[in-house]
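Renewal narrative, Specific Aim 1. Our central claim is that a sequence can be written position by position from structural information alone. The example that follows is taken directly from our test logs and has not been curated for this report. It begins with the structure tokens describing the chain, in the order in which they were read.
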């Protein structure tokens, strides 16, 4: 029932051989994802995220900046602080150690979240359509 947020295989940071310069969990002057303190079984203190809530900003060495969004509603359980000191694991191991965050959707919404996900094959078809149309 938990969701691990990672970069998609088709993300420009993973495709074009860019170098990640920095990762910043400071979303605004008053909001840092690093200040998320969770305790207990009910995950008290966790920041609540909407689908459009930014999780972090990633800057590449060519000056591009990418904002990574939650994409699901739920409580922010954890951010991966390891990528701050070693940003290359985001590119080297994006689906394991290079995850960005862990989000726990509301129990009653978790079924609709998983039903709306694409299968691996559907995702590859979407990517193929995107490539052929551009």
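The sequence written for that structure reads:
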């Amino acid at each position: 029932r938990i969701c691990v947020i990672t970069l998609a295989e088709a993300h420009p940071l993973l495709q074009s051989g860019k170098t990640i310069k920095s990762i910043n969990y400071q979303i605004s002057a008053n909001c840092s994802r690093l200040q998320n303190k969770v305790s207990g079984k009910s995950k008290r203190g966790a920041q609540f995220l909407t689908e459009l809530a930014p999780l972090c900003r990633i800057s590449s060495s060519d000056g591009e900046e990418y904002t990574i969004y939650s994409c699901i509603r739920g409580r922010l359980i954890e951010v991966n602080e390891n990528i701050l000191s070693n940003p290359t694991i985001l590119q080297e191991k994006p689906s394991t150690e290079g995850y960005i965050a862990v989000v726990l959707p509301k129990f009653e919404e978790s079924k609709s979240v998983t039903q709306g996900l694409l299968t691996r094959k559907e995702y590859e078809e979407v990517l193929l359509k995107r490539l052929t149309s551009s």
